[in-house]
User: Fold these one by one.
Assistant:
Number 1:
Amino acid sequence: MCGVLALLFGDGDSDCCGELVDGLTTLQHRGQDAAGIVVASTKSEWEEVNFRFVRSVGLVRDVFGPRLDALAGNVGIGHVRYPTTGEGTLTEVQPFYVNYPCGLSLAHNGNLTNAEQLRAELVSSHRHLNTTSDSEILLNVFAEELTDALRARRVGSTEAAGAPFSDPLDEDSVFQAVSNTMKRCRGGYAVVALIHNVGVLAFRDPWGIRPIVFGKRTYYDDDDDDDD
């Protein structure tokens, strides 16, 4: 049992870390072992975007209290951990990160029932797994499927033929990667991901065993109020 959260502030200027911390505090009952946040900025030029991480063992208030200044950015994901698989060490604290085919960070609640099979498949294709966590397995499966989706798009599309991988990701490739990840991963899972030059992504297992909720906040100006 863990808690996951993702936020995107559409103005590009507001920092989301404060609300991520508030949200994780609300989700603290779902995991008291460790907590982590990663943020980025959608306003920066994509070549200059850095993922900023704060992750540690402990409660939300202890992990982030003195370190919020390190988390400037309008988009991010967070995680509180109650370990059901893997070890209870700092190495296992989410969100996890890979840098290919682009910057990808992922946090996950749930369990993969075919984790060892997937681990063997990943290792056989020379992907390096640094933890015993099935969340890292899920991240690498998604990264593989996103790579394949991008390659297939460029081969099969006249417009994208020969385009470098540095071109912005298209939503069809992202959703195709999600679909293929679901076909490979068995179990119950809810996932949030931060994708470089895209934003945030959330998906759950096809059966909804681990539910996830999508919400949108609408702001109104005072001028919008109608007294008539």
Number 2:
Amino acid sequence: ATTKTAKEIFEEVMANPARRRFGYGQRLAVVNVDIQKAYTSGEFVTSYMTDPNQVDYVNQVSNSARSRGLPVVWTHVAYMEDASDAGIWGTRTNTPDSLQNIKFGSRRAEFDDRLHIDRTRDAVYTKKMPSCFHETPLQSLLVWHQVDTVVLTGGSTSGCVRASAVDALSRGYRTIVPIECVADKHESYHYANLTDLVLKYADVVPVQEVLAHLEGLPAA
């Protein structure tokens, strides 16, 4: 038994790395997961925030990658009126705040207004399930761009970010999670899952480290 908090355990693991890093490969993509008003605007009960500067950091990482000719991807969730495209995932609750009730064209489905999305260059995908790889064109895009490293941002850490990280690793990608760029409903979920990610599936690093790596790459 332990009396340590999830955050304390995470900090211990980060201070005493037991595994070597995956590191960066030859070419990266930034994949920003579900940074949409249902989760980041603060106006819905489904909203959450961990680092108050999350969106600013996501913009910095995305802008830097784009300026170097690297792919930037944005995903969001949205569903049909009858929610049949949510499948079994949309059957556990049915309130105005339920996942499957994030409808196409609704405010909850809209991207956060603070995001710097380049609609002419960035890829924008609607997804239905936790992983950003599930039934989206993401894999084909990454193959076309000869990407071997995926930088994941967004939320939630315990849900769609974790699922996307597991899928990225399973497909052979080096996976990087900038700490300040992901968020969850409670710090316990957030830090417990960051611990799991860094021990198994991804390099979990400060966002300044990712920005420094990008700054070392040639401009497009």
Number 3:
Amino acid sequence: SDGALFVIGMGTCHAVASFQGHLVGSQVEVKMLEAAGFDCSLPTREKGISEDPEVAGLPEPAAVIGSPEGMCGLGHQGGGRVKVAVVRRFEFDHARHKMTVIVAVPREGRKSPLYVAITKGSYEAIASSCDPLSIPEEFLDRAKGMALEGCYVLGMGCKFLTPAEVDSIVVKAETDRDSVEKNLRCLGLIALRNELKDDSAEALGKLKEGAVRSVIITGDNAQCGQ
């Protein structure tokens, strides 16, 4: 289901790592990962995961991430964690305004996993990468509205891949990133609220009293800064 894919995207499409029991990385991505309930403390291929029967035979996973308890919706009805392997990660690109992971999701009763490319980024970049028929009519208006309310808004899209396509991308490197990140199906929006600190109003008031002109400099879109 799209809901399950959305949660898997939140749990895998990031650059967060676990170090000495703590999540390290962008705080936006850390909060997203925590909200999804995924566990990224499982060992990587380099740390001996190659003997794990649940990922044996997959194209060299960059990471293996544990899903929330009772993850279902993709043909898995078990009550425990599902090990989702990230077999390729395209890091966030500032020119593209997005990042992409290719994940292998185990399917109960089937030997082969489900391969999915999941892309996360600015909602404008995701909208331009998705099949227009998959984008809800209110997508951009909702994104801009949440940004005006002070939220950091991201979009997410995906598409299914065949084992041959994964082999071409991951093993043979015959398929480029641009091909992976086009004709996606829109999954939805992620909104993280930027809360003001308790003393922000007082601090700004003192600056104003001192005839200091305050200017907002933000890496977010203009609506969020406004």
Number 4:
Amino acid sequence: GAALLWFGWSGFNAGSALAANEQAVLALVNTYQAAGASLVTWILIERWTAKRYSAVGSVTGAIVGLVLITPGAGLVTPVGAALIGVLGCVVVYPAFSINKNRVDDSLDTFPCHGVAGFVGTVLTGLFATEGGLFYGGGFRLVGAQFVASAATAAYSAAMTAIIFGILSLVMRMRVTAEVEIAGLDSMLHKEKAYHTDTAISPSNSFTSNDHDDDHDDDSEVGGA
């Protein structure tokens, strides 16, 4: 799933140029630069904090990098894209811990897309080759990016709250605890996506010793 998402993001960012030109190529390169840098940064932080690596963490780091670079994919250099991936990941990583403890967001949508999108937009104001802070543009672009991000976040939060409030008056907005524990697939859709309750026990497992015993029995029968 992550591979398909990453592949699709290639067209998402590069295609924003609306042409097969240098900016499209730059956006594509920067997309992979930021995603790779964020992936490596994530697993290093995870190793330092949790004393382990994880496949889920690696995938999450890559997706965070994809989100971080999207606002400025065609506006920064490849080095800038890598720095956005590293710095952005460091800033976004703690948001996942806060999210898990205080928000019912099993897919970590808010930190991965909301926080990372906000951070990536602001970092674009630092690394953009035209008007960026690190390229002599001062704080004008950084300020504009921050204000635009804050306004977008406020608008999105307000409209979501209004839509949620209206819908909550006419329909249930969350399943019951019993349905949630049992699983929505089986309770609401009457099917299972993952059959995890069919475990192989030692008594019915097929081992090499069983194979050897069967082979010996066959030899005896053949010999007889």
